[in-house]
User: What shape does this take?
Amino acid sequence: MAAASPAGAATTPFFYGGQAVIEGVLMRGPTSWAVAARRPDGEIALRRDELKSPVYRRRFFRLPFVRGVVGLGEMLHLGTSAMMWSANVKAKAEDMEIGRGAIAITITISMIFSFGLFFGLPLLAGGALRDRGGSLAFTAVEGATRALLLVGYLYLISFIPDVRRLFQYHGAEHKTINAYEAGAPLTVEGVTAQSRLHPRCGTGFLVVVVAVSIIVFTFVGRPSLPVLVASRILLVPVIAAISYELIKLMARHSGNPVVARLLVPVLGAQYLTTREPDPDQMEVALEAFKNVREDARLEREMVR
Assistant: This one.
């Protein structure tokens, strides 16, 4: 989604971000977003839209902590829209079309499964300490269980061929943004030399979320089960807001020796969700990125 500023920038610029989709990459700029996907015939399909909602235009939504919650909802919305579009790019090439209803049902089932796996099971693991140890031990076991489940899940799905390609496009997204922020040429050759790891990655964000959740949930203690479950849901925006600010802060100061050490798990987790992309995949990422580039004046105005 690198802490270095683009060459020639007088101030810290807008932080471009994105994510991998089916056979493609989504990129988000200051005033627009674009998604590019490779068709089976080798051509690149492109969709580009302006960001017209007040969420993207009003200064209030860019305030510290508010922007973390907004950013989470924004990427879920844009990511879902881009994923649906890229799925249909592939389906139409095979004389099929995936209905919005089918995609909505798939997403709903996935969210229910994810909630049960990453919230339900850790709570059960922490519940084993209900009659012994303090709230810190309870939340530490819960957080550690959640982290282990996440790592195990990502490791296992990486063996699925389609997921592995998705992770390659994730690597292409990181390399493209790293190239831009390092002032390298925005060409396949310029992108190839860049790292596939990035401090502002969503995977790294999840690492910070786990750490922050342990601290936040410690203050909740060990109330009754309904209150415990409600706290895990209602405090998600708080944890997301704090985690967002922390990961942006670490990205801005990645050259600091202490921060560099704190970034080790953030970057290390990305070895699970990124793979080295091939030139065709980097070309797709570049196509999406070039379509959201704005002039320097707009970047400075939209600093977040």
Remarks:
- The beta strands are 17-21, 24-28, 32-38, 44-50.
- The chain has 13 helices and four strands.
- Residues 1-12, 299-304 have pLDDT under 50 and may be disordered.
